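Please go through the protein record below and explain what the tokens say about the fold. Record follows.
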Amino acid sequence: MHGYSDQNLEALGDAILAYSADRLKLDPVPLDGPLTLAELDARAGATITADGIGGLAALKLFEEDLAPACISTDHPRYLSFIPCAPTEAAAMFDLVVGASSIYGGSWLEGAGAVYAENQALRWIANLVGLPPEAGGVFVPGGTIGNLSALVAARHTARTNAASDGRTGAGARPFRVAATHGAHSSIQSACDVMDAELVGVEVNDMGRLTGPALREVLLSHGPETFFAVVATSGTTNFGIVDDLASVSEVCREFGIWFHVDGAYGGAGLAAPSVRHLYAGIEHCDSFIVDPHKWLFAPFDCCALLYREPALARAAHTQHASYLDVLNDAPDWNPTDYSVGLTRRARGLPFWFSLATHGTDAYREAVERTLEVTRFAADEIGRRDYLEVAREPDLSVVVFRRIGWSAAQYQEWSDRLLADQFAFVVPTSHAGETLTRFAIVNPRTSEDDITAILDTMA
């Protein structure tokens, strides 16, 4: 199995490269869609056998039966959830990362990869406004990024409490404050950590604000909180919290200020919306998923800390076989998040940034915002549609006046069955709605118009 000299493996390598190249050249890509288990059983059957079916046969099976049963998240009319639209450069380099057998967890084993990843992280840190000593790591996704940041926050808060000689309720802070619009991974992280998530009411624009946060902290005891989570771009509506006022309250009480920008943090690259992020420069930690709005392939979340030493104290694993790493002054990415074994998942993002330059990224993000504004305006021009909230970023939530939940679902199912678009319903305050999440620069005004026409 472990040799390239075999002619069959050489032919397989050529076939895989050809398939990858052909897929990257598709414009547009096919939308495709899921099949039932029974349908896949009938088409694919048993793929794992004692003798193997052969690489070319397995590739043919994937190309003809399995891949078409997956929706293409980079299709320009895939506007559900948060799409993924990697650049061709990033997708191609993902092949290189897999072929290079790089371990990205330590400087000793992957210095070149870590060096490159850190430059990509530095670009993001500069957008946020973090100081030169800030740093972090690329992790699989926002869930692990948020969890890792909160673990560092709790460790820091409890260390500070112990050094201050604190006793009673503030000795072991156990609460996190966030709004109900915060990503579900915040609740998940609190569940994993056995922490209590305390909800904060939002204002009439759906934003977390400093005054509302202060009220909640005082009512529960600020000394019992180890973190506040604000969001720069909620998943459902794309709302950016009032980061400036929230950061002031966090500094007032000495509580860790974490900003979840998994989706919306990419908007920092766009001058037209940069003002929405005022105050983000005061965060203690921050995440953004390049696989969402920064055009990297799955899975890639950038996690940054204002003071990386605090995260290192919380996350460094200790074992005799790790002494050679822990005793060195090097930057070891696994010191900054949950987990030890680590793929150099930031490299495709780095390669695309290095290839195209940051100006191209700014222009691409601005292009999606331009299409989003067009979509909101176009919805407003149609008497059968209504925007539920004017967009902050690149998510537009709207209603088809008079439709029931069943009608939204029937419409969504029809779009996918016709291979026309993938737009699913959502809900807010008990009402069924739908939404466009526009993060693919290939999504055009014509795409938006065509989809809205189907709702007439």
Notes: The mean pLDDT is 96. The longest strand covers residues 225-231.
